[in-house]
Write the structure tokens for this entry.
Amino acid sequence: MDNRPVLLDVENLQTHFRTMDGVNRAVDGVSFSVRSGETLAIVGESGCGKSVTAMSILRLIPEPPGKIAGAIRFGGRDLLKLSDREMRQIRGNEISMIFQEPMTSLNPVLTVGRQIGETLRLHQGMSAGKAEERAVEMLRLVGIPEPGRRVREYPHQLSGGMRQRVMIAIALACNPKLLIADEPTTALDVTIQAQILDLMRDLKTSVGAAIVLITHDLGVVAEVAERVVVMYAGKKVEEAPVGELFRRPKHPYTQGLLGSVPRLGSSLTGETTRLAEIPGLVPSLKQKIPGCVFASRCPKATDFCVAVAPALEPKAPAHVAACHYAEKEAA
Amino acid sequence: MWAYIVRRILATIPVMAVVALFVFSLLYLAPGDPAAVIAGDQATPEDVERIRASLGLDRPYLVRFGEWVWNIARGDLGISIFTNLPVSTMIAQRVEPTLSLCLVTLLLAISVAVPLGVVAAWKQGTLIDRAVMGFAVLGFSVPVFVVGYLLAYVFALELDWFPVQGYTPFSEGFLPWIENLVLPAIALGAVYIALIARITRATMLEVLSQDYIRTARAKGANQASILFLHALKNAAVPIVTVVGIGLALLIGGAVVTESVFAIPGLGRLTVDAILRRDYPVIQGVVLLFSFVYVLVNLLIDLLYTLFDPRIRY
């Protein structure tokens, strides 16, 4: 068993948005925890609430119209009970975040050095000169050539991959305990994706930060995650160690996700299997669904599934899923 | 950069030439005859004709235009028909009050309007936002002279906080100088404040929804730093543009404001010159205003590079 201490404990997280036509339950009762130094992946298709979950941890959801409830315990404190000032001391310092769009996530009118230095000046009280020196070091650490020159450049002078490296440098500048990466490689070329993932893995071992990786890319999950949470329609439907999940997915949705991954070289071996897809669309999050959220698209769904919501229950060691019909294995 | 500046300054020459042609032609076509005004009610047609000849107004249009342009090129704006003083001297005497009024109004407008717009955008949809926008509509729709007389009535006549009208030169001290300018600057600045506040709010709303603002928040930056460093610098280009365009409003408004508050500036000089058909003075002042406007626009274009590193010349 994993005996690293629990760093982040999210319990019954509910992030709702009030809109003109009802309440949108973007995240509806999600619980998970992350241990120190662990890499947890949260996967799911677009609109399943995984990004909102990530933003909720740092309380970056505008309130109103958003409303975050539940408990987010980090280092013994419930982040949802902190004042704005206390929360600002955690952001970028103990918990930092990398976003999906490196092209738009950096401020176009401030130099790269200023943007990296900002967190250092905010959280470590560094002088402007010292912060810039450290920014140069950070740029070198994330593998940007000529850091002394780049530090004075603006984001538009950098490529997409370099910008994401800068984002990582910003995120890691204060040696955070937890790094939340929201689709960090989605907007990048495949070769750059691999480089960025390698970089994140290297830095994770040297800095020792835990990572919450939000992604829809199962290839990325297989490569870097230790444990996986699968989300669907604002709910957690399955959680398991990464190997276990890929070998023995319990929830029909997870099975569908894994089945929809194209396999390289399958046409060479003569297999002409059609790429599996999950029929239908994610249900609207504005109505409360009494039964299983996946029932409308599930091949195994029965009337019982539509009527009664399945609870998350252990199906194997360290493996939970919310499905009435997933078989249980003896512990 | 320097090549760009030199190119832009050279480009003002044809612009000014066109302006000069327009100014001259408009006055040529406008009804009214300075000779008749000078001659008075009792004059015979012969008297008027004699005065017209002495002023050189009987010569052909192109000859007069050519001579005027040639003199301007040598730095001579001509001589007033009425005071017989050189136009450049008359302008020089009147420049300080107008320059003071415009500068104070500009500073007041920017320092009031930009924070108002920023706060309105930050607190979008709240009472503060609606109050600012309501004020902006008011600022747009109430004419300068109404605001001017209202201010003079309340703050000068009733409360006696400021002088009713007049102007004290800067050389007689800062306090008397600024005292006389507060009310005119507010009256003149109302439209300007409304304009800048609106564009600031609109631009800030757009900027605040950008990804890099979320990044700033995720870094733990406080609200003031997010609004005034991360957001405002990105919103600066449209704001600076409107400040420049608004300067035309300011020059137009200064003419009215100077009349309301009896400030002996260029605006008053213009109005008086128009009433007396003092062509050389009108031409000189309009030419000066146009030149200032062209220069300000150049300055604004250069300011862009200061706020946005992506803009390079």
